[in-house]
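Entry 14. Structure prediction run on the chain below.
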Amino acid sequence: MLLIMGFRKGEDMLQPPSSGAPSVEEFMQYQQELGQAGVHVDSAVLHSFEDATQVQVNDAGERLVTNGPFAESREYLGGYQIIDVPDLDAALDWAARCPGAKYGRVEVRPLAEF
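Output returned:
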C-alpha cells in the first residue's frame, strides 16, 4: 500500500520537498500508468484533514470524539494506492513515481496476511 502524505500549508516539516501541490492531471496520469502496468488494485482520495474526526476510548470504556483539524498534525493522509507488485523494490519504484512523493511523501507498507 502506498500511503500518500501531504503537509499542511505554512508548517515547517523538516523541509518538505516542495511547497506546491500535485495537480489532478499528474495523479490521473499516474493512475493511468498503474493501470497500464497491471498493478493497480484499489485507490482513493480522502476528504480534507479538516473534515476528519478522531475517536479514542479510555480505560473506562468512554469514547472521546474530536473533530479536526488537529493542531498536533503537521502532515496528513491524503489518499492511498493499493498495488500488486512482486517485491519491495517494485513498490518503492512506483512510490517514487507518485506525484505525492514530489510534494510530500509516500509511505510504503505491505498489507498483513492472516
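Residues 29 and 95 are 14 Å apart (CA to CA).
Filed with the rest of this week's runs.
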